[in-house]
Amino acid sequence: MEKQNKSQISRLFSNRYLNYSLFILAGFFLGWLIFRNEDGHDHETDQASEVTQETTWTCSMHPNIRVPEPGDCPICGMDLIPLLQGGPAGIDPDAVHLTKEAAALARVQTTITSGQVPFREVRLYGKVQADERLLQSQVSHVSGRIEKLFVNFTGESVRKGQVLAQVYSPELISAQQELIEASTAKDTRPAIYEAAIEKLRQWKITDEQITTIEQSGVTQSLIDVVSNTNGIVISKLVNPGNYISQGTLLFEIADLSGLWVLFDAYESDLRFLRRGEKLTFTVEAFPGEKFTGTIVFIDPVIDPVTRVAKVRVETRNSSGRLKPEMFVTGIVSTILHEFSKNLVIPKSAVLWTGKRSVVYVKQAGTEEPVFRMREIELGPALGGSYVVVSGLEEGAEIVTNGTFSVDAAAQLAGKPSMMNPVGGVSSSGHDHGKVSGSDQEGGSKAETVTDHVTMSGAEIKSPASTGHAEFRVEGLCEMCKERIETAAKSVHGVESAEWNAETKQLHLSFDKSHANIDDIKKAIADAGHDNDKYRASDETYNSLPECCLYRK
Questions:
Q1: Residue 171 to residue 173: CA distance in whole angstroms
Q2: How far apart are CA 80 and CA 63, in angstroms?
Q3: How many C-alpha atoms does 192 have within 13 Å on its Cβ side?
Q4: What is the DSSP-derived secondary structure letter of residue 548?
Q5: Which pLDDT tens digit goes with each residue over 240-267?
Q6: Is residue 68 a part of any domain in this protein?
Q7: Number of separate domains in the chain
Q8: Domain range for residue 157?
Q9: Looking at the domain assignment, is residue 128 inside a domain?
Q10: DSSP letter string over 472-526?
Q11: Distance of alpha carbon 250 from alpha carbon 225, whole angstroms
Q12: CATH number assigned to the domain comprising residue 367
């Protein structure tokens, strides 16, 4: 049996096709071993090279931490991650580099700056009022009793010379009798005659009436009170049968052919308003129709409660369509000639921290997007844009969309950014600072970390603590919005405030080390707006414009 097995094996190995197959398999196996070792060696070499480059370690939450060794973040305790050094050749070391794919995902868009005409539109709110210069007070020039009124209600139109009322006056009857007697001896006693005529004239008796009395020789028991202007009766103060004395006010008449429109202008808007400028306004009664007027007066005093100054506009109203007390919305378009040589950039390009304004400028001559932060000084806001006073030159390509994404990438890379203008600080030493608690072998990790980290003698402050809050504030219109936001920003430390008229919610961003919510809510209540903690005083609330009165 054993001999038979050996014979079969010998015949098997004597087959030349089988031998060829074995040789080929052996060759494949040896090649696999050789190339496997080479690939493994290259991978290890690349990995070692990569580790060699990763000489700086940082924290993903606090990129200002830069140390040469791995460990825990001294601020939050998270594990440090390696920070790859370098980047595409030829870029600024303080610039942040994004791939084209990353820039597309972040929807980063850029715009080349150019000179523009600084144009500002100021929106104002106000009411139509009667022109005070065209108001007339109709009084009685004699004492007596109202016998009859020819104007019986307010709102009635009157014309100049129209009889408004008739008055019975015993004194007037005596004065007429004196005139009749003096007229018989006017040739011998002209002085007495002239004195009698002048007495009637002082009571506003016309020369025609005097001549009629003199010629007829009959006294008139009733005297007519005539209108001295054209207009609308806005106040009726007497009724038939009332006894009146000389100088008693009977009617108030307003000529509405010319009107005033009084607008409320905040302090921030006054610099854009000038006397003599044309203003366009609209009223709710005539949607789509525009009226024009001229600014003739700007109140020199700011109201201490509402924080507004009155701006007076004169307009003609010959058709009588405009009525006093109508609400109006005005727009003044102003060209800022003093900033005609300055650049104008979109608001979306600017990151604002309350004290610093920064933009991101694209570096020229690179294949992929590379941006560097630049601090600028801003001028006045122009609706959706800003005037740049300094820090930016014409022709620079700036980020106008996705600015926050670029800034976030700069912070994670430890480059200069909005909240960290100096970027990360590298060092050769490694000192995580003072840590409370034990960190010995087998002991517990640090429990509390101080707010400052010392590395090679340099002190690095932790990022600014910015707080956000949202609460309800009562209000109705755009004037309320501006008043609420202005009151909130008046508190030191408030960086931004935005109130939504529909939801009545105010969203705040503020520095916790300088401002607190309680002070902000109190400032808003002092300006006249109730919130979830403080109620505005009745005196302040009642002084608000009528369109802002939100209490039912």
A1: 5
A2: 10
A3: 13
A4: G
A5: 999 998 888 999 999 998 999 999 998 8
A6: no
A7: 5
A8: 134-254
A9: no
A10: EB---SHHHHHHHHHHHHTSTTEEEEEE-TTT-EEEEEEETTT--HHHHHHHHHH
A11: 10
A12: 2.40.420.20
Give the domain-ending residue among 197, 232, 254. Answer: 254
State the average pLDDT over residues 129-139. Answer: 90
Q: Let me know if residue 64 belongs to a domain.
A: no
Residues 202 and 249 in one domain: yes
Considering only CA atoms, which of 458, 482, 471 is closest in space to residue 517? Answer: 471
How far apart are alpha carbons 477 and 493 in whole angstroms?
26
**Is residue 293 within 8 Å of residue 279, measured between CB atoms?**
yes
Angle, vertex CA 461, rays to CA 456 and CA 466, nearest 5: 160
Closest CA to 165 of 144, 150, 145, 143: 150
- Classify residue 278 by burial, with Cβ atoms within 10 Å: 0-12, 13-18, 19+: exposed
Residue 503 one-letter amino acid:
T
Q: What is the CATH number of the domain that holds 511?
A: 3.30.70.100
- Of 422, 447, 476, which residue constitutes the final position of a domain? 422
Q: Do 306 and 396 reside in the same domain of the chain?
A: no
CATH number at residue 293: 2.40.30.170
b/e map of 96-122 (b: 16 or more CB within 10 Å)?
bbbeeeebeebebebbebeeeebebeb
Looking at the domain assignment, is residue 477 inside a domain? yes
pTM for this prediction: 0.51
Q: Are 145 and 225 in contact (CB under 8 A)?
A: no
The answer to whether the Cα torsion of 387, 390, 394, 396 is positive or negative is negative
pLDDT tens digits for range 35-60 = 554 444 444 444 444 444 445 777 76
